[in-house]
């Protein structure tokens, strides 16, 4: 187990727990990173980027409980921080659950946030085949498909 003196000195500092988890993740020890990430998330008051990092640590698992947690963490983080990585994790979870249209839409949203409008439109269009018309997801997919880059931005 990785021992960090900073955590012993300041156990209530969430970012020291996150730092420990980062070392573990970068060393390919995602399972071991989960506990410090859970601690960091609790101490930081559900910080969206820490939630995304925990979802990354869980994403490799194939069990339904981990998949549900990945989806939940990604969705919660997206409420306050729209970031492509959270959308990609959401897509991964949806794909494992067989929710292909929602996975495609999540990938579309990740591409859109990254500025890759063409790829976003491809995935959004693909997602429309499986989304129920009139739902918020279908409307979002339509918004991406119909988006046009402003002429003054070119």
What is the count of DSSP helices, taking H or I runs of 4+ residues?
Answer: 9
Largest sheet: none
* Class inferred from helices and paired strands: mainly alpha
Give the proportion of residues in helices: over 70%
Quaternary structure classification: single chain
| Gross morphology | elongated
**Overall mean pLDDT:** 94
| Element pattern in H and E | HHHHHHHHH
- Measured between the Cα atoms of the first and last residue, the distance is 51 Å
Short summary:
The chain has 154 residues and is mainly α. The protein contains nine helices and no strands.
What keyword list fits this structure?
mainly alpha
List the helices and strands and how they pair.
Layout (H helix, E strand, L loop, with lengths): L4 H5 L4 H13 L3 H14 L4 H12 L4 H17 L3 H13 L3 H14 L3 H12 L7 H11 L8
Helix pairs in contact: 2-3, 3-4, 4-5, 4-6, 5-6, 6-7, 7-8, 7-9, 8-9
Structure write-up:
The chain has 154 residues and is mainly α. Helix content is 72%, strand content 0%. The chain has nine helices and no strands. The chain has helices at 5-9, 14-26, 30-43, 48-59, 64-80, 84-96, 100-113, 117-128, 136-146. Helix 2 packs antiparallel against helix 3 (30-43). The termini are far apart.
